[in-house]
Every structure is written in structure tokens, then in C-alpha cells.
Write a structure and sequence with these properties.
Helix content: 40-55%
Number of strands: 8
Strand content: 5-15%
Number of domains: 2
Number of helices: 11
Shape: globular
Oligomer: single chain
CATH superfamily of the largest domain: Phosphoenolpyruvate-binding domains
Order of helices and strands: HEHEHHEHEHEHHEHEEHH
Largest sheet: 8 strands, parallel, barrel
CATH topology of the largest domain: TIM Barrel
CATH class of the largest domain: Alpha Beta
Strand order of the largest sheet: 1-2-3-4-5-6-7-8
Bound molecules: 3-methyl-2-oxobutanoic acid
Amino acid sequence: MAYLQTDVTKVTTRVLQNMKLHGEKIAMLTAYDFSMAQLLDRTKIDVVLVGDSAANVMEGYKTTLPITLDEMIVYASSVVRAINRAFVVVDMPFGTYQGNSKQALASAIRIMKETGADAVKLEGGEEVLESIQRILSAGIPVMGHLGLTPQSINKFGTYAVRATEEDEANRVIHDAHILEEAGCFAMVLEKVPASLATRIASEVKIPVIGIGAGHGVDGQVLVLQDMLGITQQFKPRYLRLYGHIGEDISNAIQQYISDVKSVNFPNEKEQY
Ligand code: KIV
């Protein structure tokens, strides 16, 4: 298949909308630091998400709740400095947008001003509508996030697949339409049955990016460290491993230790 958007020099919300229109799938990955983002920038990745999964991956927390806006801004500005082509989205952390739309706008403005990112992402449907509307009113593109919303883990009590019951499935469908009508440019749908995700992607006109939501959506997102095999002990069914980089890193470090101990490093050419 010819990829229609491969030649664009900068991915925008319009490009993403066109991809959906033409049936070209959107590839999205997370990044939290300059080095990894530089590697992503060498590719044709469409969207880079500075996810609040940084709380887990970079900071070792069990949930995404503790990460702060200041920390997200440091991660996001490092990523933005490395990315030229991809569209960069930054997660709004827990506590910076729920229940107070003025605070939501102030948080989103800080993200946009201090990082140079292209858009923000936040979790939830109707309950955060006022915040979404206020952020959008300032001209800031918003990506929604429905299904498993990790910032609500204490309400769910589990990371199991969501919306398997009719009531919750109907609520997710309702919220997807709310996000579209509000003016979100795209949404993430996390860990819901593939049939539900496919239905939502066909009903809404904005791109739906899935994670654990099957292939009937408009694109996929994974956490970079998960798909590269760097993250240990995280093996959900939806995760495909595209590398064993964690193992490569451990082996390289082990080899370095051994070379230092045996005075094999540095050699004659590696000294002055
Ligand atoms: O924070 C994150 O990495 C995310 C993705 C899993 C969608 O929200």
C-alpha cells in the first residue's frame, strides 16, 4: 500500500484527519526523553505521545497518579527538542484538569508554552467536557482518552479490560460522541473489546487510536519501552515485542563490567 502521508514534513491534526479519511493507519508511540525521541525522529512515526506513563516507566511509580505538571513539562520539552516531523501530544497529569476548567486551561497553556508541543491529551468523557471545551476555546488541540483510563485506577480497582458489559460499553460510545462533538481532534481507546472499538471508529469522524482495542480502529499506540522489551514484567495480551533491547542492554553492561575487571578496556587505541 502507498502511504499517502509519508512525504509530509510535519504531521498536523489535518494530516491525521486525512489519514483517517483515506484509511491510512496512524502509528503512535510514547517518548519521554531526548535520546529516544531522536531515534523516533529518524523514522516516519506519525504521533509521539509524552504519556503520563512516564510515572511508571521513568519514575517507577505503580500508577500514573503521582506525576506532576512540572515533571511532564521537563519530559515533553526534551522530546519536542528532538522531534521534527511527528505530531507531539502531551498527557495532562492527574489533578491538573478534573473538576476545574480554569485550572485545566492554565495547565494546558503551560504545556503548550513551555514545551512547544502540538496538543494535549486528557482522560475521560462527559465528566471533563467543560475542561475540554475551555482548552479548545484557547485554540489548543485536545486528544481524548476513553476505556481504561489509568488515572481512574482507584475507582476501577483493576487494569482489566473495560466496557465488556453493555452499560459501560454504551457509556463509552456516548462519551466518544461527546468528545467528537466538543471538537477533540482524535481519541485514544484503551483496553476495550475490539468489536466496540471498531464500532466507535466507524461512528465518529475523528481518528481513534487503539491500545488493546483491536485493529478496526484508525491507528495504534504502544509504550515505546514496552514494545522494545525494555520494560520488565509488563506483558499484557495486546503487547507485541518488537525487540529485546532490555536484554541487549544488560548483556552490554555485563560485557563492560567484565572488560573493566579484566583490564580489556580501555585498550591501546582507546587511550591518549
Ligand atoms: O500514558 C500513556 O502512555 C498513554 C498511552 C498508553 C495511550 O496514555
